[in-house]
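re: ur question from earlier - yeah i can do the single chain one, its not a big deal. heres the input i used so u can compare w yours
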Amino acid sequence: MSQPIPTERVQVAAVLRRMREQAGVTRGEAAELLGCTPSKIGDLELGRSGAKPAELEKLLVRYGAGTGQREELIRYARASRSRKPRGTYGSIPVPANLRRVLALEAQARETAHYSGELIPPVLQVRSYTEALLPGGPVKLVELHLARRDCLERTDRPRLRLRCVLGEAALRTGIGGEAVMAAQLARLCWLNETAPNVEIHVLPTGAGAHPFLGRTVTLHFFPRPAPAVMITGGHDRDIFCDRPAALRDAVERFTALRARALGVRESTEFLRRLGQHRASTVEDSHAR
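and the output i got, formated as tokens:
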């Protein structure tokens, strides 16, 4: 049975790897410091296992971290060891990459997302998700639908989502006209009623841009966790937490959002397109 990876552990792992590389310490040298194998250091840096506070203290001292930074990171690591997983994936075979995506998404404080072809799971209606997973297990559909919970959670601040959707994602016929009409209505409703959600439409004629042909998600977390960028392609997700790459991605997303329609204009666009699809469904029923 697969267990969700504690998100704090994933973020501590990312910090450890980055600090080790910045300090010029090899995995072998870090392993010698702890009296373990380099593979254990690899597991710590990928979040497959969590570091004990004493181990973390040794590594952080070797990496040159200051007292305040060490104390903050150790507190964060203790949270990852004490926090119980939110649940299990049961018998559903969930790839490691998707488990990491789910963990990061669930813990993010703020997310910026671009997609040119698909509505992201966090915004999907059930019929849209089911159309993307034809014949898939009910539990897998529920797993994806549960990703929407971060927009309405009550145990901590709701996720702040800024999303840029290419017009093509709104004009695809996934599931048919009725499904797309319901999906567009959901997007319109969120833009009008959810203060933590901004959905911007990027018109087809907007031209080329740096994110063309891929999905890009930027997750931001409470300190000391670093931000993470997930770039999605046709067959895999690529994770990156390099500060320079993230700064560049944030600048590009900000510029892309400025080229897209504003929230009010996007809402009107979504409403018109949704009404057109709904009327198409009504006409087909009237025949």
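The chain is about 50% helix and 10% strand. not sure if urs matches, ping me
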